[in-house]
UniProtKB/TrEMBL annotation:
Annotated Acidic residues bias: 330-353
GO-annotated cellular components: Noc4p-Nop14p complex; small-subunit processome
Function: Involved in nucleolar processing of pre-18S ribosomal RNA. Has a role in the nuclear export of 40S pre-ribosomal subunit to the cytoplasm.
Compositionally biased spans, kind Polar residues: 303-313
Organism this protein belongs to: Rhamnusium bicolor
Keyword Repeat: no
Subcellular localization, as worded in the UniProt entry: Nucleus, Nucleolus
One example of a Gene Ontology biological process annotation: maturation of SSU-rRNA
Protein name: Nucleolar protein 14
Record's keyword terms, sorted: Coiled coil, Nucleus, Ribosome biogenesis, rRNA processing
Amino acid sequence: MQKKSMNPFEIHVNKEKLRVLGKKQKNDRGLPGVSRIKAIEKRKRTLLQEYKLLNKSNKFMDKRIGEKSHSMTDEDRAMARFTAVRVKTHNKKNIFNLADDEVLTHRGQTLSEIEKFDDPRSDDEESLDDVNNTGKLDKQFVEDAHFGGGILKRTGIEGAKTHRELIDQLIAESKKRKAEKQKTKEATLELTEKLDSDWKDLLPIISKSKKTEEDEVGKPKIDDYDKVMRELKFEARGTVSDRLKSEDELAKEEKEKLEQLEKERLERMKGFIDEKTSKLNHRSADDLDDDFVYDSDPEYMLSYNNEGESNVQVHAEINGKSFSGNHENSEEETPENAESSDEELETDSEDGLSDLKEQTSESEDENVNNTVNIKANESAFKNIITPDEEDVQKINNSEHEKEETNVDSLQEKIKNDLLKRKEIMENARKELPYTFSLPECYESLQKTFENQSSNHQSVIIERMIKCNHQSLAEGNKDNLGLLFAYLLQYINDLFAEASNAESIKNSFDIFKAIVPQLFDLAQVNVENSHNSILEVIKEKHGEFRRKSKVYPGFEILSFCKLISLLFPTSDFRHQIVTPTLVFIEQMLNKCKVRNKRDLSYGLFLSTLILEYTTLSKRYLPAAINFLSGILHMAVPKTGVKLLKVLPPFKSTSSLLVLVENYSLESFKSLQMDSTDLLENEIKEEYKIRVLYNTLKLLEDFYYNIKELSSSSEIFERPLRYLELIPTLNYPKEVQNYYIAMETKKPKALRLYEPKIEEIYDGKRFKVQSKKKAERDKMLHKLKKETKGALREIRRDKAFLGRVKIHQRLQSDRERKDKVKRIYAEAALQQSELNELDRQKKRKK
């Protein structure tokens, strides 16, 4: 096929002002006619269709299956449409009208091919082999009752049965046969179940095949992949769980759980023990765990309640008098026996239970009396059921040894039970209560925390929050805010009263334990927590301004640490964190360093500054200045010229100069201790620890702010001091800890390169920044695209104008044709009328 040659007059050549050799141009030649035709066709497909649908709300949509899918063939479309028609016709009305050509299958087999050898029979149906057990009317009865005349038949035989008697006989025989059939069926089912159970027991033995070693060797091994696939195949599927509970529901459940635990604790304190967990089962003296079993009726087992009365009422008649096993009746009717039982009771209690009475409380004494009354009831019970005194003597003589062993074993068992009960009660008293109410004042909170360890104090606050959650009552939110303020006051008093190593260590332990609960309280009432902490900082800052040259108390350290744990430190400005940072910087700049306490205090504040600025990457000069001052104090001042140092340090201070040699010694820990905040004397070991921690802090500060452009100038002074410290006297751990600045890249040598000048191509470019050049480039593109869009809009308007003119001309042409047609028809009608008029005139 020959390629169609283009008309040279239709080709437009774009000329260039300056011809550049080797430069390729995309738009050097153009086909305006072809481009114009393509543009018109495109507008006909898009703009013209929109114009035709202008101001029209309805449109024709082809919803036939597969018309919009270009990937479907004609056969696929026909199949899909046929399927849709079949589905539409298969509605609820004719769902049971099955076509003849449709064959129902089950597991690959048609229903006609499936053969089931079941014999489902009804309960009233029997085998027809036995005529007598058919359950139907026999032949003789049918002949007599139905076809033999019935009640009208007169046999004349003596003793003949009437119709009613025959019916009754039939009913009785039918019931008898049904009963026999039911009995046989039950026996058959029982035998079947027994056979099934026996078969299940024998099945593993039968199914187990004897495999030889050759078979085991020749058997292929199971691949790990297949094993994993089988495990995944038979893995348990997930089930639908209950909905997640809301915060209010969880708080309510926590409160109910704590209340139930507190109720159980109080019951244990009073001696009431749950039957499920208790083993204190009071039994009779005859019950010696010698395999006596009361399976017939456990209610008649001889036992006693807590008051010492028998649980079983025993009645007997002796010489015409009635007696019962009740303790009160026995005392009234047999006073002699009661007196004898009292005597035995006194002797037994003096011998076996005297030590228990001294150790147990009032509630335990009652339990002792109740359990001892068991013996009195036993003796009274035995005296009541005997007929006379002679029989009593005989029985006592024969069973005297057995009663003694029974009483001794009972006493020992009661003693052990009471000791266990006492131990449980003491443990319950020592347990921490599970429910707490919010303190009404600060003194009640102090009383609650009195003699409690740090962990117990944390648990108490946690249970206070759970039992008084804000969703459980209306005023709990404000009360929890008061609890937060009370805890702040408690921390203040705790650290203010710390005067020795044990007290300050205990204070830090308590502070560490209750911080999580303080965080939860701060989230409950945010506004109250902000105001409370802010008031504390204002108060402490006011106290600091009175003595600005001395480091304040330890409580300020605790509050500064607490603020970093409760509030975000990465914000650009925070209403609590920002003032606290300013406060810390003022303390580091103004307080003088004179002893060990001041150095430890300043290091603690420097550590807090590092913690505050880790995320925000900020630089506080006071921290670097303080650490530089510590390094300056470790430099020996031997020369006449003193090293300059910034306040509050002095140029002549040499408190941290290490005199003795510790290079060969090793230390287990070089960390700072809480006791360093109390002591004033500086020892050699403390000098090593201070220098080690100072270097570690300087390294952390360096890695935190090394991205700043002024980092080299910030650490210039600490590095100069560090170079003057003699490191030979320090241990290896300190000698290896050295801060080194990053080495700067060496400047490249100046090379003589050829100077390349740009060739002027007629376009002038301004010398401007990269950002401004990008902006000008974007403006140029915007201007170019705007001009192109306006040009296309003009062309679209021209196209629509031509379409409108064409429509107007066509409508005018159609209108003229209609007018001409109307005129022609009117002229024809007029000619016919004229012809009729002429005919009328001729007739006249």
